[in-house]
Amino acid sequence: MAGLIDIAVVDDDRMLLEGMRSWLAGQDRLRLVATAPTVGELLGGPGRAAGVVLLDLMLRDGSQPEANVRRVRESGSRVLVISTAADRSRVVAAVAAGADGYLTKDHALETLVEAVETVAAGGTAHSPELAFAWVGDTGPERPRLAPRERQVLRDYASGLTLKATARRAGITMNTAKHYLDQVKEKYRQVGRPACTKIELARRAREDGLTD
Fold it and tell me: Where does 147-206 sit in CATH, by number?
């Protein structure tokens, strides 16, 4: 079927997994190819070929969210992290490690479908919980941007040209470019590359600077 997305789920909640299987049976856009209680078991079976992996934030095997995200991403799958509640520090760590989005499990199933499709297409699935986690974060993964750097990043990432960004800020284009270069360097230093406008827009969304 054209456009069919193969997904896998890593979660140690058996009731949730059964509910997921039942619900996905009625979906014509998503196909569940595997479930597993740990990342290791998923990658040792057919789940390693899934286009998108729904990964529970906290598993009972004691594994760290960021390590799980990296292992799944290294296998070639994209990652949508899910959990019962927003744990700010762990959400931030998971996204900084390469997760392509975050949702709490209380969202409507239609929201989950939309998020999976966004992630499968190469985008980032944002949610109010993710924005809240980034906005309140003070960890080392979040660069310390000066007010003018945040303003230039926010305007440029929202789609304005460099010239329009400079005009809105009341500065020259060269100065605006200097601020953007500073922003890029600060993101590089915390291990979150932002070399292109697309990457800058993604970082701005992740950090709650844009919608």
Answer: 1.10.10.10
